[in-house]
Structures
1.
Amino acid sequence: MSGGVRTLDAEALAQACAGGRAVRAQDGEELVVGAHLVRELCRRDRDEIDPRGLAIEGAQIKGDLDLSGMEVPFPLRFTDCVFDRPVDADGADLYLLAFDGCTVPGILANGLRVRRDLDLSRSRITGDLRTSASTSCGAAVWLCESEIGGRLLCQGTVISSTRRAIQADRMRVGGTIRLLDGFEASGGLRLIGARLEGSLDLTGARLTRPDRGLALDLSDAQIGGSLFLIDDQRGRPPLVRGCIDLSNARISGQFLIRAAVFEPAETVRGTGYSSRRSSGTAISAPGLFVGGDLSVEGECRIGGGADFAMGSFSTIRIHRECAFTVGGGRALDLTNAELRSSLLIEEGVAVEGTLRLAGAHIRGDLRLSGTRWSRPEKESLIAAQGVVVDSVVNLRGLEATGGRLRFRSASVGGVLDARGARLCNPGGDALSLQQALVRGPLLLTEGFTAQGRVLLNRCGVEGRLDMEGGTFSEGIEAVSATASGGMGLRWAEVPPRVDLTGASTTVLADDAARWPQDTAISGFVYDRFDDAWDWRARRDWLRAMTPFDAGPYEQAARVFRQHGHPAEAEHLLIEQRRQARRAPAPGGRSPRRRIRDARDLLYGLTVGYGYRPGRVLWLLGALLVLVGAMMLTPWAQETLRATDPRGNVYAVDGRLVTVDDVAAPKDGTATGARRGTRPGPCGDGQVRCFDPLFYTVDTVVPLLSLGQRATWYPETRSPHGSLVSTLLNTAGLLGWLLSTVVVLSFARLARPV
């Protein structure tokens, strides 16, 4: 009846279905179909219904449409229909079910079996229905334990609920789930443990949770295809107000996020048996497996963190237009994750928050060049303790503000390139590579700037540690660090402090004049200098370091000596002894210390601390001159005596005492003799004649025996005899000491270097 209300009866409905015709309202009329008629039709025999099934368009469905437990072998299609009561299809076994453009106050379909598609496209579904499947909250659409042989289509669908829009735990879908073309869900989508043979497509979807809780729960889900959260062809970006949970989910294909907007979630307190999730998390996906790539493309605005801890991925790629805004939180958490290829964050990406890579294994590259980082969680912008990167770590041109880059105990299989990076964390650590292993070069060059400490303690670099052209505003600590390929330490500005205690390298390439005064290089071992063999520059380099340490002098001297510069090595060792004497004593200068310093000063002036034995020859010559001059004087010669085997005593000018009777001399130093004296001072050959020159040599150089000192001795009872004896004995001791030094010095010079 045109322009009025037409109520369809059972016979008309049966005839339409038998003929394969759609039941639709005429122009201007309002068509009413009783829900009980639909149920009765579904109970008819299959042969009475055309294979096209039931199709109702533009009608009002009055009453409860109860299909629970029914087996319907033909399609059921409702187009632009309005239902005044929820649809109940619990446990039903249907061929196809479609609500296209309908208004439905809820769908109960737990345990539903649909051999083909379940189509909810363009429909408006509202409600907070409760079932025995959940005691915690209601949902607008219930599909728990349902099986859909084809696709679940929600193109342009709008679902509203105060808590959950769809609850479909452990649902199985043989095809894809398409929530796109303006799909909106006010309330969470819960698909815990769902199994999809195809993909999950959220192109242009808008998922909002009024309480900013779980907007999409895919924990333990398995997706045989890919997961798409991308903008549609009209440029409508996907919007997620709340959290996406992918805990322990498995995606066989790729996970693509493009031009999506994530608005931060508040702290999510789990309801029922679910767990509590951290505050501000946009994507919570610990244990997620993605068989393909995880890509974040376009102008993505992620206002919460992405937690992929313990996950497994092929490649994670974040494109240049993206931005993470999680100030004070975790922007990207890959703790203990495995990347079968690389982690690539392109140049221009801005991240407010922390990148966590603790314990992660990246089998390809870690590329963060040109990225910008700020507002970290707990002082670390990049927390990569124990990370393993099989290939290259590229930090070139990276900018970090307000936090540190921490790679403690990390392992890098190739080069770690931080050329041109700018790290700003005043008063804290800018870069920490403590106990890290870098199997290639470590490059902190070409404008690298660190406003904060650079920590390389116990870091092992199998390539070259290069800091040429870098700026280290708060110093470098590299205690026990090793660099097998050498160290390039020609920094752009002199750092305030450098600590290389116990470090080791092969080649030291530096500017000796551009080291800070506060330098600790005790135990620093290197094999050679690159091209600077100026011992004076090295002396000034070592002299400028405070406090004094003897070890660096010995190391530098060893390097000079091993490379054919023994004289330069001795200069450095002499300087070492000088600085040791000048170094302040811990308890002040005691009298004993003053005596030791004086002895050390004398040792240095005389023989150059043993490294200038040539000076002894001058001292020995001076002693020879002094003794020779003394022995040429009459008062010294008058004291000398000699005795032959018969007991005759001689002075240098004749016999004094003989065994024959002769006149006693007037000086009283001899007794009378029975015979006359024999002329001549040598006793006619009975004693060796006195020679002042040879006597001097025999006294001063006791290593030689000329017979003079053994023959002639000072008579202590004569005038000046005691003085001459004392002087000669002292000269003999000094001569023995100086001669020994000369001999030992020649022996040292004879040794091969």
2.
Amino acid sequence: MHPLVATPEPRSTPWDRTSLPLERLSEEERRVLAYASAIGKEFDFALLRSATGLSEEPLAELLEHLVHQGLLREHPGGERFSFVQEDVRMRLYREMTESRVRVLHRKIGDAYEQLYPDPPAEVLPELGRHYFLGRVHDRSYRYNRRSASLAREALAPEIAAHHLERARADLKELPGDHREDEAGLLLELGELYSLLNEDLKADRLYVEALELVPPQKTVLRALILLARADVARNQAQGDRGRELCADSLRLLEKEGHRRGLARVHRLLGRIASLEGNTRSAIEEGERSLELLDPKDDAREIARCYVDLGNAFSASAEPSSISKAVEYYRNALQMVEKLGDWHEASRACNNLAVAVGTNDPKEGVAWLEKGRTFAERAHDRRMVGWTLFNAVEFRLTLGQLDEAERDNREARRVLERLQDPIALQQIAMNDGLLAIRRGRFGEAEAAFQRSLRLAEDMGYPPQISEMHLRLALLYDAWGDPERAALELQRAEGLNVDAYAVSLVKAHRELREKLHLDGGDGESGPSEPDERLPATGDGGGAGPEH
């Protein structure tokens, strides 16, 4: 409706809210209200007529009387009504026995089917709801499954999960053996909870699914194992993730399942990338691409592009960053066309990390765009990643207050999700912010905390980076012995390369410690103003 067009107020009659007139109603009026309360706060005349079986004129007279009583409100046009007070509707609904509620919902579902033989998208959830509450399990299962698919396509994973939970309950009530169907449903439901950043809940569903899937359904079993491997990766359990990938790979190779094999190699590449094995990450990503069909697998190809961008961004090769940026841009172009806002957010986040070293302002701009995509995808995890990755860029731009705000908000979002990789990076940011405030002790404590989190995950790149940041901190504070020790620890992990933002600082520190011969005065002094750990344009890292 055009906002300048005045809308008439729905017609109703005021009444004393302290004295409900329900007891003064006729049996037929109470029957009509019972159906209306089961439909919802608002209802259509045609639907109520079909459900109750009343003729048009008698129903219109009953509704008119209820409007005059102040119980209902008539909307313009006379085809739609609503309850004046929600507590009245709830009182009517709760007073009914379970058997009557079941009958009413079933009849309302039948009325919907009669009115909409080919139900549109907005009616499917109502059919699912009424047949679920009416315990018509076969129809409820069918409509809730369809509603879940529509909700997922509309980037509403919470709604999709709600419908699948109902479908699962229905499936248990249907006669026959439905173990394979339930296993497939649990896989889909787990993927939704994973999208909602509830990995542990998703993994419990995958375990249940593995217990249900028949032995001969090897592809389904392999895909469930792969889903568990993805959870393991998200929880920084690289060894466990590789074991599950290997189990999945064996099954998929027997079946020659091309797309499934591509997904396994892609996930192995993501695990390798997190662990700092750049060469393996690139090889696995390229192997995944070789298995995918450009015509049918555009979404998977775009995701591979993002992963390959991550691998190249961590490479020590001079041309690696330009290759990474090319992969990110190609991925972003593809996922925007597909409407995959989660992957678009990931591409923007990682592109920002790649370009922001040389241009922190552009890095912040890409992160803000990525956050917009993450919000469209209802992806709280990626919202948090785009926030904490902006901290170093903002420090380089002199935006200290904004940097502290972003890190604080990222912690608020990601602590709830128990994202270990992100929380380690946020702790590191605490150290960078403390340095900028001139608080050496706080910075050291934050870096040590971030180091412990990195060691708990067991990922060499993050561990090595934290030793290097501690080395830079001690050097700037005039403690070359401790700086040399931390540098030795960092280099002892043999990671392929440091983040671009640290390459120059690492080289200069090695040269300085060698030239100084470790003879500098030990113990705290005034910090060196050139301290690179305050952020020289490098974001915390890509979302792998």
